[in-house]
Amino acid sequence: MHDKDPEFRTWLVEEKLTNPEIMSSDQLKRMFKEFMEDYNTATLPHEKYYDMHAYEKRMAIIRGGESNLLEGLDTYDANADLISHKRGLKRGQVEKEVFLSREELEDLRRVKIERDQMTKMKLLGMNVDSKTGVRMDTVYDG
User: Fold this and answer.
1) What end-to-end distance do the CA atoms of the chain give, in Å?
2) Cβ(62)–Cβ(70) under 8 Å?
3) C-alpha span between 58 and 71 (Å, rounded)
4) Do residues 27 and 20 lie in contact, with contact meaning Cβ atoms separated by under 8 Å?
5) What interhelical angle do 25-40 and 5-14 show, nearest 10?
6) What is the per-residue pLDDT across 2-57, written as a single tens digit (0 to 9) for each?
7) Do 138 and 107 touch, CB atoms closer than 8 A?
């Protein structure tokens, strides 16, 4: 509570329109709990409630007309963000594409047709061979 006291008191005065000097310690604790809930979920209405010292430093630079000192301080670079995003989209290793031969494709087509026929036969109540609609792997004799 002591670390965030300036931010908390500013939040009380500006957002809750409450004077922290006239509040009891129990009321202050309840309000601080609400403040920390918003702080932890990043839902405070202004950036100064997160770090008052950094905000005041930046505002002093702006008021002094030395905006060139702000470069790189806490600016957002959209191009760097876009480059980072594109790097994340690239694949590590390109997978080798698998191509089937004409015979393998015809075999798969035959199995599909057999499965469709088997389904129709089962719906009609007919007995179906257990090996129908199964693709058999070729066994090579060495």
Assistant:
1) 78
2) yes
3) 11
4) no
5) 100
6) 889 999 999 999 999 999 999 999 999 999 999 999 999 988 888 888 888 888 88
7) no
